[in-house]
């Protein structure tokens, strides 16, 4: 079937002009559209639809700009706006027939045009930032950094070369004092007070769009509305009792719902009424408003967008050991929502470490903990990784337990593990502790979660039923495999041979366990075996009743 | 359960969970005006009360949380003053004094049969009215001032606004499904009576609320409430309360529904509507149409088709889910990649 034939199956559609059999201008619900067929050579393509000579202000998913691509002598002169019918990569187009693609796009267009007010409101809110930023006249974008989304907050403004940062008071960004040839990269400006106002009920709030620009009324309506309260009581109280020090102010609104999470800033110019509260300024003093191009840039937001566990965000994680496993674990922790790490390791990075090191060849010859700290800091200015270029000792371990929320041992030395285990048990450590290590040969690894308030500890693994100390019972390698898996490089120096698969596997399993601990799904101490075949709770007897460390 | 998400979204879209600050502010100023001016006005007519004698209490849906979004915010606040009604036997005069105490340019004030109304306008559109039923406390009892200013029909009617509040709060608070059902029925009323000007033709909220409480059927399936079936069953049993008379052609010639206040004065809440037969017949016809549509929705297999019937009852704010065939086709082709 041709486009024309498909269109003719719809009673609602009348064909106005046939540019070719496949390129057609038609009318649907009193609006005119131009359709281009999907390309027959490209199975991934879809039909393209344009709204003709109409600003489309009443409808979501109609692009704001006129298309200039349509410079073809065949197509009548006019204004064409692209109608966005498909979310990017939401459908597998290659398995749909040519005709179905055309009728599917028409069905979607009909659905779009038949939306009721409530559906339109939702779609407009999903695309809020598109409209907001298109309506801004300020050249520099404003990057917003928040630590939370539910409470009123005061913010600071820093101007940079290409953008402006608005940072919630109390939030420290590690690069804020950076310099470029003696010149500060970020200069604090104090001419405008800035406030964050979270919107808890977004009913009836539309973005500015085609001729419906925001004015003071829209701002008033957010903080002092007639029927639906858009802000919480506590936010209202703070707006009512805060007295801005500057005449003009910047308001940052946060609007989070099931279907979107948007943040938009606006500068409001006010009459000079020195003693007016923020509420009174908004209600009575606004003379002009200036929407600012806004983007959320904080670590909380990025983590939320990815669906990370934000429970780790404000927690401090101590990682003991910045070798191969430690480097992978630290890297993945900060990408999964942990912004505050402390690393202990005295070793230097050497050339032959590099292939089992998560960050490539940067920093050879320097301390491993320090390299990790520097590189992870570059991921995001809220990430703070403190490096201690030494091995942890008894005193510092006890100190650290009092200021950390989680301890992870990524060291493989049994003597050290046993020593730290004794210290933590004796000090009745109150925070979760995880030991993780690779077996020689690199095929198997283990993760031991210990809750020192309960039964079970690292020494249990080295204890038999009679209470005698023996070698690690969790071992899954046979002794002869161990022998062949060790690389000897003179003077008795040995290294276990393994590639990065077991590092990746162990790190992934560890992240899952951390999440379970976070969600309080894991409360009893537990040993997990990791192998190429499976990740599972170990059948090694654990805890061991006769353990001299945690038993009676 | 059918249309679970749609009902949940609908409720979120129509409900008002609390008084806005703007409204609270208007009410506070109104209360201050009454407290500061009413004693002086009354004094001129030899009635002596002090500021602290005046009690103002919340009445109506805000109290038991069944307020829904409407074109105009409707707020009821009872004004209670100590008054000897044997000496002051004309409630119209006292209502006039209450009106005088609040009559300023920023609000439009007038006397209605059961109350004094203060209306607020913005950009020439009324957005709020605060209704002030006036009660006299006399001999340990409360009496509502009834009667329009010029009407010969007036009385001090024994009433129990506090008792009514308590009755409804006890029924509704803690029963989330009942609360939603009341909101749905009120929304149905607003949809069907949106173009009706005359108050007397419209079933009053208090009547619909009391009926819903009386006829409520809680319904749920596997841990979640089934609002569609609960609404259908509740409205069905309200419908069964009507008594209908038909002529030989089967045409309805009268419809009656009795619903009395559960507290003093135990009057019929539909008394005003009953002044004309046609109002009650219209009410019955519209109500039975709603029940028929909901019954179709309950019986239909397809969520889309059921949704269309519910939308006929609750209006366009209720969103009809996409046709199953279309939704399934889209589902099959939905990309399974993680995105970037
Ligand atoms: Zn779109
Ligand atoms: Zn033990």
Q: For the largest interface in this structure, which chains are involved and how many residues does each contribute?
A: A-B, 21 and 26 residues
* CATH topology value of the largest domain in chain A: Rossmann fold
- The protein's oligomeric status is heterodimer
The number of domains of chain A: 3
Number of strands of chain B: 12
Largest sheet of chain A: 8 strands, mixed
CATH architecture of the largest domain in chain B: Orthogonal Bundle
Distance between the termini of chain A: 82 Å
Q: How many β-strand runs of chain A?
A: 26
* Beta content of chain B: 15-25%
SS element count, helices of chain A: 14
Arithmetic mean pLDDT of chain A: 91
Secondary structure category of chain B: alpha+beta
CATH architecture of the largest domain in chain A: 3-Layer(aba) Sandwich
Mean pLDDT of chain B: 91
Task: Describe the protein's architecture and organization.
The complex is a heterodimer of chains A (552) and B (340). Chain A has 552 residues and is an alpha/beta fold. Chain A has helices spanning 3-8, 98-113, 117-126, 128-134, 216-223, 233-241, 278-285, 299-306, 324-335, 368-377, 394-403, 414-426, 479-485, 501-518, and strands at 13-18, 24-28, 31-36, 48-52, 62-66, 80-83, 142-145, 153-159, 164-168, 179-180, 183-184, 187-199, 249-256, 261-270, 286-292, 294-296, 316-320, 340-344, 384-388, 406-409, 433-438, 445-450, 486-488, 494-496, 526-530, 535-537. Chain A folds into 3 domains: 3-115, no CATH class; 128-297, no CATH class; 304-537, NAD(P)-binding Rossmann-like Domain (Rossmann fold, 3-Layer(aba) Sandwich). Chain A has an 8-stranded mixed β-sheet with strand order 15-14-13-12-8-9-7-16. In chain A, strands 19-18-17-20-21-22-25-26 form an 8-stranded mixed β-sheet, with helices on both faces. In chain A, strands 1-2-3-4-6-5 form a 6-stranded antiparallel β-sheet. In chain A, a hairpin with a 4-residue loop joins strand 13 (249-256) and strand 14 (261-270). The radius of gyration of chain A is 31 Å and the shape is globular. The model of chain A has no long low-confidence stretch (mean pLDDT 91). Chain B folds into 2 domains: 21-159, 2-Layer Sandwich (Beta Polymerase, domain 2); 165-329, Poly(a)-polymerase, middle domain. Chain B has helices at residues 4-14, 21-44, 61-64, 91-102, 161-172, 176-192, 205-215, 227-239, 277-299, 303-314, 324-333, and strands at 55-59, 73-82, 108-111, 116-122, 125-132, 134-138, 141-146, 155-159, 220-221, 224-225, 243-246, 252-256. In chain B, the strands form 3 sheets. In chain B, strands 1, 2, 3, 4, 5, 6, 7 and 8 form an 8-stranded mixed β-sheet that branches. In chain B, strands 9-10 form a two-stranded antiparallel sheet. A two-stranded antiparallel sheet of chain B has the order 11-12. In chain B, strand 7 (141-146) and strand 8 (155-159) form a beta hairpin. Chain A binds chain B through residues 89-93, 95-96, 107, 111, 116-119, 203, 224-229, 236, and chain B through 13, 16-23, 69-70, 73, 122, 127-128, 316-317, 319, 322, 326, 330, 333-335, 337, 339.
């Amino acid at each position: 079937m041709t486009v024309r034939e498909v269109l003719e199956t719809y009673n609602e559609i009348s064909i106005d002009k046939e540019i070719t059999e496949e390129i057609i201008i038609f009318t649907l619900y009193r609006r005119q559209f131009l359709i281009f067929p999907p390309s027959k050579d490209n199975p991934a393509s879809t039909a393209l639809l344009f709204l003709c000579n109409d600003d489309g202000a009443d409808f979501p998913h109609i692009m704001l700009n006129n298309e200039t691509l349509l410079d073809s002598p065949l197509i009548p002169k006019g204004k064409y706006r692209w109608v966005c019918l498909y979310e990017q990569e939401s459908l597998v187009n290659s398995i749909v027939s040519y005709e179905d693609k055309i009728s599917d796009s028409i069905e979607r267009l009909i659905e779009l045009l038949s939306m009721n007010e409530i559906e339109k409101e939702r779609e407009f809110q999903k695309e809020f930032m598109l409209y907001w930023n298109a309506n801004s006249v300020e050249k520099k974008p404003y990057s917003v950094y928040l630590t939370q989304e539910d409470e009123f907050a005061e913010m600071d403004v820093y101007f940079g070369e290409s953008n402006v940062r608005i940072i919630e008071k109390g939030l420290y960004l590690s690069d804020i004092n950076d310099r470029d040839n003696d010149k500060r990269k970020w200069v604090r400006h104090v001419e405008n007070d800035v406030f964050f106002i979270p919107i808890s009920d977004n009913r009836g709030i539309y973005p500015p769009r085609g001729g419906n620009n925001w004015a003071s009324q829209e701002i008033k309506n957010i903080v002092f509305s007639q029927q639906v309260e858009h802000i919480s009581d506590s936010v209202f109280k703070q707006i009512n009792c805060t007295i801005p020090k500057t005449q003009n102010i910047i308001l940052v609104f946060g609007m989070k719902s099931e279907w979107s999470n948007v943040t938009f800033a606006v500068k409001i110019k006010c009459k000079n009424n020195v003693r007016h509260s923020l509420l009174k300024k908004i209600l009575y003093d606004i003379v002009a408003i200036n929407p600012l191009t806004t983007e959320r840039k904080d670590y909380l937001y990025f983590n939320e967008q990815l669906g990370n566990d934000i429970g780790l965000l404000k927690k401090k994680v101590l990682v003991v050991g910045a070798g191969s496993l430690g480097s992978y674990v630290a890297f993945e922790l900060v990408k999964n929502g942990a912004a505050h790490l402390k690393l202990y390791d005295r070793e230097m990075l050497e050339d032959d470490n590099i292939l089992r090191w998560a960050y490539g060849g940067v920093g050879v010859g320097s301390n491993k903990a320090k390299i990790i700290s520097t590189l992870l800091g570059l991921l995001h200015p809220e990430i703070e990784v403190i490096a201690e270029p030494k091995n942890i000792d008894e005193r510092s371990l006890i100190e650290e337990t009092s200021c950390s929320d989680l301890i992870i041992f990524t060291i493989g030395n049994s003597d050290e593990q046993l020593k730290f285990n004794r210290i933590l048990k004796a000090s009745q450590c109150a925070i979760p502790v995880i030991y993780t290590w690779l077996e020689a040969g690199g095929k198997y690894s283990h993760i031991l979660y210990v809750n020192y308030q309960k039964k079970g500890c690292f020494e249990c693994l080295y204890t038999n039923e009679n209470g005698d100390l023996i070698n690690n019972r969790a071992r899954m390698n046979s002794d002869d495999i161990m022998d062949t898996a060790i690389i000897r490089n003179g003077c008795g120096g040995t290294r276990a041979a393994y590639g990065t698969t077991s590092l990746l596997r162990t790190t992934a399993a560890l992240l899952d366990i951390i999440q379970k601990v976070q969600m309080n799904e894991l409360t009893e101490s537990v040993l997990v075996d990791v192998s190429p075949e499976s990740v599972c709770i170990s059948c090694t007897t654990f805890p061991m009743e006769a353990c001299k460390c945690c038993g009676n | 359960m059918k249309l679970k998400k749609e009902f949940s979204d609908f409720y979120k879209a129509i409900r008002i969970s609390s008084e806005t600050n703007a409204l609270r502010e208007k009410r506070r100023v109104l209360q201050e005006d009454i407290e500061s001016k009413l004693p002086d006005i009354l004094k001129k007519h030899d009635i002596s009360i002090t500021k602290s004698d005046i009690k103002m209490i919340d009445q109506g849906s805000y109290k038991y949380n069944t307020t829904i979004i409407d074109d105009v915010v409707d707020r009821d606040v009872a004004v209670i003053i100590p008054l000897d009604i044997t000496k002051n036997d004309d409630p119209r005069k006292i209502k006039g004094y209450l009106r005088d105490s609040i009559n300023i340019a920023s609000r439009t004030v007038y006397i209605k049969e059961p109350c004094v109304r203060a209306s607020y306008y913005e950009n020439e559109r009324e957005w709020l009215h605060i209704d002030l039923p006036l009660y006299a406390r006399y001999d340990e009892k409360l009496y509502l001032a009834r009667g329009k200013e010029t009407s010969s029909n007036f009385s001090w009617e024994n009433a129990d606004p506090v008792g009514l509040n308590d009755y409804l709060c006890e029924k509704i608070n803690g029963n989330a499904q009942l609360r939603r059902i009341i909101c749905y029925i009120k929304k149905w009323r607003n949809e069907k009576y949106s173009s009706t000007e005359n108050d007397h033709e419209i079933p009053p909220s208090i009547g619909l609320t009391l009926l819903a409480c009386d006829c409520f059927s809680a319904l749920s399936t596997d841990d979640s409430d089934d609002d569609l079936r609960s609404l259908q069953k509740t409205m069905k049993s309200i419908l069964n309360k009507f008594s209908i008379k038909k002529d030989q052609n089967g045409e309805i010639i009268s419809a009656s529904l009795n619903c009395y206040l559960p507290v003093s004065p135990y009057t019929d809440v539909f008394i005003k509507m009953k002044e004309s037969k046609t109002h009650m017949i219209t009410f019955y016809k519209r109500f039975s149409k709603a029940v028929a549509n909901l019954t179709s929705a309950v019986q239909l297999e397809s969520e889309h088709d059921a949704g269309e019937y519910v939308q006929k009852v609750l209006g366009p704010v209720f969103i009809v889910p996409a046709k199953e065939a279309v939704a399934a086709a889209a589902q099959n082709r939905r990309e399974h990649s993680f995105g970037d």
